[in-house]
Amino acid sequence: MNLVDIHCHLNHAAYKDDLDEVLERAKKAGMKALVVSGVNPVSNKEVLALAKKYPIIKASLGVYPIDALGLAEEEIGLPRQTVPINLDEEFTFIEENIDQVISIGEIGMDFHWATKEDTYEKQAENFRKIIQFAIKIKKPIVIHSRKAERECLEILEQEVHGEIPIVNHCFSGKKNLIKRSAELGHYFSIPPNVLRSQSFQTLVKMVDLKQLLTETDSPYLSPFPDQRNEPVNVIESIKKIAEIKEISVEEAAEAVWENYVKVFGE
């Protein structure tokens, strides 16, 4: 089987002592591509370095909405961003390394870590600017929309008209938003905690197999309580997709791989 993790954070401190072992387990399980997502200028540089060192790793360079505002002050295992990001400088950096970049993400809006009342206008402005850049360089975008699903969708409807693929990472919106996004042709990446998440199971039921991808968001969203997540666990997403869609695990894996190739061009 060809397996793919379209969204993970292998530059996280959780892997500083055993990344080679993590990658070896992934390869043995049939993983063919691991898309590591950046969240700010420092982490984007780390992601690029990993992609250059390990062929299985693909770089997705991003601007996390909270980092863009300079509000990511907690120590979370990824590089901290305590001042607003200069988007134009980051766009220049991405273009300078465009041959190593397969997507732009994660990007979007977040009203979990910042209030909508205080930050909507600036988050929306940043989001639109990044979308326009992604369209300019013709790269797919990976969307983070925590507690901002409707707001992100409305902006995407206004800014993107089929020019580039849109992937909703860990989408937690209501059924009407899932339907609306799916009808627009968006893709949805399913994390392995779908095993115990009714909302992700509902998403898989509602969305056509041709619009599903798999991710782990490693080291987060493990299917197993109190365990660090890692790319090898993408097989749990595949198994659950196969069960819900009533197809074989092999059929589910092949469909997701074909979707990955279509979206990311790899």
Topology:
Elements (H helix, E strand, L loop, with lengths): L2 E6 L10 H10 L2 E7 L3 H13 L3 E5 L3 H4 L18 H10 L4 E8 L7 H22 L3 E4 L4 H11 L6 E4 L5 H9 L3 E4 L7 H9 L5 E3 L19 H12 L3 H16 L2
Parallel strand pairs: 1-2, 2-3, 3-4, 4-5, 5-6, 6-7, 7-8
Mean pLDDT: 97
Structural class by helix and strand composition: alpha/beta
Oligomeric state, counting identical vs distinct chains: single chain
Write down the domain tally: 1
Order of helices and strands: EHEHEHHEHEHEHEHEHH
List how many beta strands DSSP finds.
8
Outline: globular
CATH architecture assignment: Alpha-Beta Barrel
| Strands ordered across the widest β-sheet | 1-2-3-4-5-6-7-8
* Terminus-to-terminus distance: 16 Å
List low-confidence stretches.
Answer: none
CATH fold group: TIM Barrel
- Specify the CATH class: Alpha Beta
In which range does the helix fraction lie?
Answer: 40-55%
Q: What does this entry look like structurally?
A:
This protein has 266 residues and is of the alpha/beta class. It has one domain (3-264): TIM Barrel, CATH 3.20.20. It contains 10 helices and 8 strands. The protein has helices at 19-28, 41-53, 65-68, 87-96, 116-137, 149-159, 175-183, 198-206, 234-245, 249-264; strands spanning 3-8, 31-37, 57-61, 101-108, 141-144, 166-169, 187-190, 212-214. The chain has an 8-stranded parallel β-sheet. Helix 6 (149-159) links the parallel strand 5 (141-144) and strand 6. The longest helix has 22 residues, at 116-137. It is globular and about 45 Å long. The mean pLDDT is 97.
